[in-house]
Amino acid sequence: MLKRLAAQRKVTLLDIAHGCGVSRATVSLVLQNSPLVHVATRARVKAEIVRQCYVYNRAAANLRQRTSSSVALVINDLSNPFFAEFAAGVDEALGTVGCVTLLGSTGESVARQNAVLASLIEYAPAGIILCPAEGSDGAAISRIVGAHTPLLVFNRELPDGDWDVLALDNHNGARTATEHLLALGHRRIAFFGGHRDSSSCRERREGYSAAMSAAGIPLQPQWLIETSPTRLEAARQAGALFVRDPAPTAAICYNDAVALGLQLGLAARGRRPGHDFALVGFDDIPEAAATLPSLSTIATDPRARGRQAAERILARVHDPAISPTRTIAPMQLVVRESSGPAINTNGNRHE
Amino acid sequence: MLKRLAAQRKVTLLDIAHGCGVSRATVSLVLQNSPLVHVATRARVKAEIVRQCYVYNRAAANLRQRTSSSVALVINDLSNPFFAEFAAGVDEALGTVGCVTLLGSTGESVARQNAVLASLIEYAPAGIILCPAEGSDGAAISRIVGAHTPLLVFNRELPDGDWDVLALDNHNGARTATEHLLALGHRRIAFFGGHRDSSSCRERREGYSAAMSAAGIPLQPQWLIETSPTRLEAARQAGALFVRDPAPTAAICYNDAVALGLQLGLAARGRRPGHDFALVGFDDIPEAAATLPSLSTIATDPRARGRQAAERILARVHDPAISPTRTIAPMQLVVRESSGPAINTNGNRHE
DNA sequence: CTGAAAGCGCTTACAG
DNA sequence: CTGAAAGCGCTTACAG
Q1: Are B182 and B189 contacting, i.e. CB atoms less than 8 angstroms apart?
Q2: 8 Å CB contact of A98 and B119
Q3: What domain of life (chains A, B) (predicted)?
């Protein structure tokens, strides 16, 4: 399991000390920029460090100091741009304080997640940021992580435990998106894509329902269309919107991938998104601005969320007395072309 | 710089030993599944480990054994899907052998790259996988990394040093793509997008030129169009293809992002990609299959490259006597709709 | 099969 | 301002 390094003798503090006739303690103090060391001594030590190509062994230092300068990040999979952006944000924020990111991925498997957590915890990270796999068991996670390492759970609900939570405001995001379409005159609005059993999908559907009820529009069951959250699936299912008359004139999509797929599926059926049909996505992935028609969407800014998660976990590391909190990140509606112009109540555009 | 962990006493090997009346050595042997320990003793120890919620301190073990169970991965930025996929592949392969990924990102800055490397090397990784930032200095990197940690350089050329190289076969990939368009009957073929000073762009242009020369077609300077390698820029520059008559009928694109942008730019000018104009991308990002028309492209399979890089570095870790090699990963043409049907030499389709 | 002892590379009181 | 000594949590010969 372990990699065996060529046990070539590395140059150590003691080598530096011998090299310039001081003790290890002095070298250590120089390394820590302590003001206790005489300038001349300091200069001699520093020169010797360069001369011998000494490299500091942070693991040894951490062991002795009982500290840690790493944070573990456990996500689903980096090939999902949402998580990749989140990870980039985490790494960026940790990097600025000289902390390193230990990466682990679960591939949405609970068993793998437990194994990954159990492995990462052995590296004694200062904290853990976890995007839990679907179906995660909070109690099991608590048991593995233990009480001494601050944990932050991102993005997915987990039956409450003693950890920080950073959640997206799915409910209000979907409500805002729906209200946007209502304000443009749409009445028959579908919620397209996603799996009912995913908590984020459930929350988004609830926000959508809330807005529809508030507008006095009874929900039609055929307006709720499930798909796997991928572009391809969404493109294939586009037809499901039009099996009954009167068909919806607009849709809130579970996420941008689904929305982009729906745009393709609509085009393949001769309908022009943003003209014959209005849609709003979720996430604001880079492509949303670049596609044609550009995609109106609810921005989640995963990179900023990553920075936020890292800062929160660092705060808890620095002061373990802080108690865990629940933070809800707001989401912003970005209006682009795909939601189209205002229409009249028959579902036609004002000309 | 360092995070200070609440110095709460952690349960240690000695606690377990005391807890069941054996020595630390015995507990250590149990942890390593050594056959030297009596079954009954082993069972007692294991029970005690669970009872006390002991967690192994891998850093301490690594220090004592002079081993490492981490590999550092330094990339540009995770928000680039190509690198995100590569990182996912690296992490996947490392995970299966119980090795952890230390992440670092350069944001394409040489200064930051040097700082990140200097920081990561202090964690004594067993090896380093580096996707060098543009303009990297091989000598500086050698100096920072030192001679004892195997290094693998991915994707970008770096003046030769004592490291493994995993390169993409840009030249042949571009040649293959160009030959595909030539075989369809195209003669006026552009090379669209990318920056001339990037080594991968240069190599791809060379492959393209080679195929054109081999077909006896003199290159027109106006067929070489530079853009930043983004979708938006590419969409904006689409017009540059048509400033002079006769305009090209096809283009090799620097990468898929550029190709997708060009598709949008063409559509905005009333030209139908795959009908009025043929194009081939580079990378085979997931979107290439899902866009409309679907994108013909040269597949680089970054995830497989990541696995390959990880396996290579692990091999060197296990046997430091192996000398560094240069591996060129082959690239595969994937034919989809965007390169269109065969045309006649006037640039019209066969009907 | 088990235990006492030394040591991985660092830091930190404590004396001087 | 500098040095001798103990110790972070583990492993590994070496005896028994």
Answers
A1: yes
A2: yes
A3: Bacteria
